[in-house]
Amino acid sequence: QVQLVESGGGLVQAGGSLRLSCAASRRTFSGYGMGWFRQAPGKEREFVASISWSGRTNYADFVKGRFTISRDNAKSTVYLQMNSLRPEDTAVYYCASDVTATGPGPTSSWGQGTQVTVSS
Predict the structure, then answer these.
(1) Contact 82/116 with Cβ under 8 angstroms?
(2) What does the pLDDT look like over 37-78, one tens digit per residue?
(3) 30 φ, ψ (degrees, to nearest 5)
């Protein structure tokens, strides 16, 4: 099982930007799909973005054109660049490993989450 550590969350005004990072402990990081999910208070966790081992990306409709997922295999790290943030983006953001294009897989591992708060 891989350990994932997220960072980069915080408080930002609407229209602002944040970059989340997720560092993985696994040396074979490059062979696995990685993803970002989020959970707002009182809501279920939802898919945000994924990136395959080959670099193919997929996004939830509500972040297309605003968020960008990327990965640095040499650093075993996946990023989520979030621009044009909205109050409705406020949530705890989770990194996951071994994901499919649109959701977690049967062997996915999860980070502890990082809080993103967007003020209006």
Answers:
(1) yes
(2) 999 999 999 999 999 999 999 999 999 999 999 999 999 999
(3) -65, -20
Residue positions counted in the chain = 120
Longest CA pairwise span in the chain (Å)? 41
pLDDT single digits (tens) 80-108? 999 999 999 999 999 999 999 999 999 99
Using a 10 angstrom Cβ sphere, with 0-12 exposed, 13-18 middle and 19 or more buried, the burial of residue 71 is: buried
Determine the Cα–Cα distance for residues 5 and 25; give it in Å rounded to an integer.
9
Helix (H) / strand (E) element for 13: namely strand 10-13
